[in-house]
Amino acid sequence: MPREVRERQMLDAAVAGFARHGYQAASMDDIAEEAGVSKPLVYLYLKSKEDLFTACIRRERAALVAAVRGGTGDGERAAEPRHSDAERQLWRGLCAFFAHTAARPDGWSVLHRAATQGEPFAREIAGMRAEITELVTLLLGRAAVDAGCDEEFAEREVSGLAHAMVGAAESLAVWANSRTDAAPSPKETAATLMNFCWTGMGQMIKGARWSPHR
After folding, report:
1. Whose CB has fewer CB within 10 Å in the chain, the N or C terminal residue?
2. Burial classification of residue 156, based on how many CB atoms lie within 10 Å of its CB (0-12 exposed, 13-18 middle, 19 or more buried)
3. Using CA atoms, how far apart are residues 187 and 198, in angstroms rounded to an integer?
4. pTM, rounded to two decimals
């Protein structure tokens, strides 16, 4: 069997095992049995449990970021979007994010848990968040500027809004995947977040601000 096929089988089994039991409790014996290989072969290919978990994180991280970028259409045709284009890109990116996390719940569980398992795992997750947040910041900034918003708003508010949106998306993905009855569709979950974030941003662009002194 080709090495890449064997490694994919091992990673599939490892993602399922880590999602089910967590990093500390997952057993290399169980992972090897699930993959249909011997434990020495797992160590031959992936050296250690830490290396195996890191490989799982990197594979799932790359797949998720690729899905989001594919959804937004980030690339040449997105170079100079109008306001409506930026909004549509953000919507499609969110739909892609929630569709991916729903289709690969074990992979999402591994990513969601990894940040609490210490270095170097937390660093991998921080890198993933930075990639996605950078993309969201770009889209929100374009939307704000194209809507005639002053540069001070775009510079001061957009980055914070992007971080808030990414954090909310992660939380909603956990919530949606934990539902056992009447689970929302990816589009329904994306619409919830758009209503929460985009509508609020629209009011801020128009000059409406919430203040604790009112």
Report:
1. C
2. exposed
3. 15
4. 0.85
